[in-house]
């Protein structure tokens, strides 16, 4: 009887602790919120990438608009890094939920960088090669920070997968950096260089 009482006390206690602990630490809505906030970071970045691509693809690209959109993209990624860093660790399921949004963003970034590489001769003739190179480096720095932040929120067993996916984004930007490498020292020099020199 005494034994049974203890068992029943422990069961009751366990039940109560479970009932208290669950809503605080493990409620799916908590996890969902972090997944949702990370998803919305990826969406905002994607929207800004699309805006940038829009300015790159017009018949007569306006460098001021491109630089402006690129600067906005860099700050969007930067604030996204803070959001991701502040979010809780993700469960396996939630981490898997990020696969598709990261792939979508990666594709979007790759297209945009491809378009930016495609207008390189125009960018050069407008003397924006060096500015573009610097912007790409800023994007790469921030995208790398975003990748590190994302990977740190993913369960250890999925981290190498996450790293591989995020690499799609940074590799695409790296292609742009490589394409515009040397622009700051070449004769296709940039605007500030010209105005300083005059
Ligand atoms: C520059 O970007 C901001 C924010 O993205 C936008 O509101 C503004 O209209 C842009 N200006 C130009 C000249 O494109
Ligand atoms: C990235 O875009 C280039 C074209 O700009 C394409 O050749 C390449 O296959 C794309 N890479 C990925 C991983 O989609
Ligand atoms: C979050 O996950 C990372 C990587 O798996 C781990 O190093 C860290 O300790 C975890 N943090 C918490 C609060 O569980």
UniProtKB/TrEMBL annotation:
Endpoints of the signal sequence: 1-21
Transmembrane segments: none
Entry GO MF terms: lipid binding
One Pfam family matching this protein: HsbA
Gene3D superfamilies for the chain: 1.20.1280.140
Family annotation (InterPro entries): Cell_wall_mannoprotein_1
Family classification: Belongs to the cell wall mannoprotein 1 family.
The protein, known as: Cell wall mannoprotein 1
Species of the source: Talaromyces rugulosus (Penicillium rugulosum)
């Amino acid at each position: 009887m005494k034994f049974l009482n203890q068992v029943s006390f422990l069961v009751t206690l366990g039940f109560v602790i479970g009932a208290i602990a669950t809503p605080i630490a493990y409620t799916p809505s908590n996890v969902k919120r972090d997944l949702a906030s990370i998803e919305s970071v990826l969406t905002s970045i994607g929207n800004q990438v699309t805006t940038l691509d829009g300015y790159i693809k017009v018949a007569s690209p306006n460098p001021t608009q491109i630089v402006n959109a690129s600067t906005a993209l860099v700050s969007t990624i930067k604030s996204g890094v803070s959001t991701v860093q502040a979010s809780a660790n993700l469960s396996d399921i939630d981490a898997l939920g990020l696969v598709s949004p990261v792939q979508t963003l990666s594709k979007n970034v790759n297209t945009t960088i491809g378009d930016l590489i495609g207008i390189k001769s125009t960018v050069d003739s407008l003397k924006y090669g060096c500015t573009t190179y610097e912007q790409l480096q800023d994007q790469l720095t921030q995208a790398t920070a975003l990748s590190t932040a994302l990977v740190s929120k993913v369960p250890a067993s999925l981290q190498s997968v996450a790293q591989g996916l995020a690499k799609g984004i940074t590799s695409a930007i790296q292609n742009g950096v490589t394409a515009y490498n040397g622009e700051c020292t070449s004769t296709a020099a940039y605007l500030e260089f010209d105005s300083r020199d005059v």
